[in-house]
Amino acid sequence: MTEPRRLLVTGGTGFIGKVLCRRLVQCGYKVTVLTRKRSAALKALPLPGIDFVESLDELGVNELWFGVVNLAGQPLDSGRWNRERKVEFRDSRINLTKTLVSWMGELDQSPEVFVSASATGWYGHWHDELLDEGSRYNTGYAQRLCADWERAARDGLPKFCRGCQLRIGIVLGPHGGPLSAMLTPARFGLGGAMGTGVQWWSWIQIEDLVRLICFLLEEDTIEGAVNGTAPNPERQKDFAKILGGVLGRPAIVPLPGFLASLVLGEFADEILLKGQRVVPARALAAGFTFDYPELRGALEATIDVPR
Ligand SMILES: NC(=O)c1ccc[n+]([C@@H]2O[C@H](COP(=O)([O-])OP(=O)(O)OC[C@H]3O[C@@H](n4cnc5c(N)ncnc54)[C@H](OP(=O)(O)O)[C@@H]3O)[C@@H](O)[C@H]2O)c1
Fold first, then answer.
1. Which atom of ligand 1 is nearest to the CA of 16?
2. Is the CB of 168 under 6 A from ligand 1?
3. Is the CB of residue 215 less than 8 Å from the CB of residue 288?
4. Is 121 in the pocket of ligand 1 (CB under 6 A)?
């Protein structure tokens, strides 16, 4: 009998990571999660077949790894973006990614594949331009964070390790993530346009994202930046309208841009009030198919709506 292939996952206890780890175990991988706190991780992911380590030093250099999936990162919506928080955003992404890449280089045999998270923020802010992996970027805080994060995942990667930097959009899942924050106001009919509402939101249903990560692990023709978004982004005001329709609540009360900026600061200015219209050109070209290409279907599959 062949040994199961081993994967190291960071951020495995998070909103995306928990769904991913379950899927990886179902697919027959042997998963080890690198976490800051093993006891909390055991509670977050009470699954047989998953090991937890708190440091890469716990792993021997002669152990054989098929791949590494890197999802760790201090959440960007964890309060106002002050100086300390920005240091945490960078440390938890860029420094951790550099440490991982250097650890891979020290192994007797390097992993075959490294899938590392990034975000659609890599493109910066745009109006209506369709953005694929060949598009240019506009600079800004989130853009620089993503660009440095991707560079850390690329530079110094062992020669025979295939690297994919996954530019993830707004992930729609039932337990946590951005949708959870939108649901309460939307259920009270308060989920209207934010600012002008014409900004594009590029989104992806969590099951599609997790399937895409599994696809990237196995599809050895694909390398470099890959957009992790559904093929049909929506303007924020249309997103709000479709969400209201799924909930059976009209999305009528707008959130003025100045108020969002006042309350949420740079997070509102960088993430909510401006956006980018991103399409998953490389995933589609490589043959990946989305179960949820349209927003309405994705929301209906995600939200538990009493009928
Ligand atoms: N969710 C989205 O819509 C979305 C969109 C675009 C990009 N992304 C990116 O995708 C990745 C996963 O997203 P997610 O929503 O699953 O994130 P999440 O739920 O916040 O989980 C991220 C994980 O990262 C680890 N982590 C958190 N703060 C850390 C810190 N200060 N230092 C080191 N590790 C830390 C935690 O693992 P331990 O507690 O086990 O250490 C946590 O479980 C993130 O890097 C995020 O930026 C997410």
1. 16
2. yes
3. yes
4. no
Q: Which tens digit of pLDDT belongs to each residue from 129-140?
A: 999 999 999 989
Identify the CA nearest to 71 among candidates 111, 114, 23, 102: 114
Rounded CA separation 17/6 (Å): 16
User: 37 φ, ψ to 5°?
Assistant: -140, 105
Q: What CATH number was assigned to the domain covering residues 6-175+202-232+277-293? A: 3.40.50.720
Q: Is the pTM of this model over 0.85?
A: yes
Q: Tokens 């990237």 sit at which residue? A: 216
Among 18, 34, 71, name the best residue to mutate to test ligand 1's pocket (greatest count of ligand atoms within 8 A of Cβ).
71
Per-residue pLDDT tens for 222-236?
999 999 999 999 999
Ligand 1 atom with least separation from CA of 74: 28
**Tokens 């250099």 label which residue?**
61
Q: Which residue has the tokens 């890197």?
A: 70
In angstroms, what is the span from residue 222 Cα to ligand 1's centroid?
Answer: 24
Nearest to 189 by CA among 257, 240, 236: 240
